[in-house]
Design brief:
The protein is of the alpha+beta class. The protein folds into two domains: 251 residues, Up-down Bundle (Methane Monooxygenase Hydroxylase, Chain G, domain 1); 70 residues, no CATH class. The protein is built from ten helices and six strands; from the N terminus they run H-E-E-E-E-H-H-E-H-H-H-H-E-H-H-H. Strand 1 and strand 2 form a beta hairpin. Helix 2 packs antiparallel against helix 4, helix 4 packs parallel to helix 9 and helix 5 packs antiparallel against helix 9. The longest helix has 70 residues. The radius of gyration is 38 Å and the shape is rod-shaped.
């Protein structure tokens, strides 16, 4: 805290046991940064990174060592950096932003490669296994979408406030505090990364007094943030497209289930109608099976044929009538 001049509240943002959203804070002598697994404090001369041996953080450490050239760089390296120089803190910030955008982009690509085939398989065959698989993928997509949204919102908030961006110019504030005319570009300034180096170079040439000049000039940082804002926004658009595809698949499945439900209802109607008609036929058989004396029972063979024929025709006619009425009312498909 004394070394980088921040308070305990800022330091809590880096605590892995506390749940803080993605944050980029500018302080007098440091930038406090919390982006997913990357938790760091960036000053005008050094980067303090938490958990540097973590599997996801090791590539960030290696990239920082590669891009942040040591102060013992040769004169040839310094002369080659004149056209593309940018403050130390911006180059460190660019490494972290590029790492987190690439990390979230890779997670999104993995999710897409698993989700689209699973959704297509579910569309072709609705089963408990496929439904559970899609449910897990949807849960993962929701969590990833929230993480990407937090990073995007933080970058958007910075871009919307010039004062917040001005607070990130640590070298400018340090140079102003030491000497207004001091050439502090010195040993800590080296070529920016090739990803948006040309943009930063144009911004540097357009505002040659970035460090010593107008404190409201934030064009260089604005171009840096816009580049990664567009990248994270593209990742968020991919997740939005995937969410829409999942919603469309769910709607299609619901339509299929409703159609199957309607078919079952129609089958139930046919079976119920047939049961009613057979019940009437059984009723006739039960009545004539009773031990009741009647005069025309002597010629029972002749009467038996007519009873069976008339009862069967009446039940069949009744069944056809019920089905025709249901079709007329639109209760079953034609």
């Amino acid at each position: 805290m004394h070394r980088v001049d921040i308070n305990a509240r800022d330091l809590r943002i880096l605590d892995p046991l506390l749940s803080y959203p993605s944050t980029i804070l500018g302080r007098e002598r440091a930038i406090v940064l919390n982006l997913e697994h990357i938790k760091a404090i960036i000053t005008a001369e050094e980067v303090l990174l938490r958990d540097p041996l973590d599997d996801n953080v090791i590539p960030v450490v290696e990239e920082l060592r590669r891009r942040l050239a040591p102060s013992s760089a040769t004169q040839h390296d310094v002369e080659g950096a004149e056209e593309d120089e940018s403050p130390f803190e911006f180059r460190a910030l660019e490494v972290t932003l590029e790492a987190i955008c690439s990390f979230l982009g890779a997670r999104t690509t993995e999710l897409e490669s698993a989700a689209y085939p699973a959704l297509d398989e579910l569309t072709s065959k609705i089963s408990s296994r496929n439904l559970d698989r899609v449910r897990k993928l949807k849960s993962g997509m929701t969590r990833l979408n929230a993480r990407v949204q937090k990073v995007r919102d933080e970058l958007e908030q910075l871009l919307d406030d010039d004062d917040d961006m001005a607070d990130l110019y640590l070298s400018r504030k340090l140079a102003g505090a030491v000497s207004p005319v001091s050439g502090s570009g010195g040993p800590n300034w080296f070529p920016a990364s090739p990803t948006i180096g040309s943009k930063i170079s144009r911004a540097s040439r357009a505002s040659a007094a970035t460090v010593h000049g107008n404190e409201n000039d934030v064009e260089e940082l604005e171009m840096l943030l816009e580049a990664y804002f567009m990248q994270i926004d593209g990742t968020l658009n991919k997740l939005t497209t995937l969410r829409e595809y999942i919603d469309d698949t769910e709607d299609y499945i619901n339509i299929q289930l409703d159609n199957h439900r309607n078919q079952l209802i129609q089958l139930e109607l046919f079976l119920s109608s047939g049961t009613v008609c057979l019940s009437l036929y059984s009723l006739v058989a039960g009545i004539f099976g009773m031990n009741i004396p009647y005069t025309w029972n002597d010629n029972h063979g002749y009467i038996f044929k007519w009873v069976v024929l008339v009862s069967g025709l009446f039940c069949a006619f009744m069944f056809v009538t019920i089905v025709a009425y249901a079709r007329h009312k639109g209760l079953v498909g034609s």
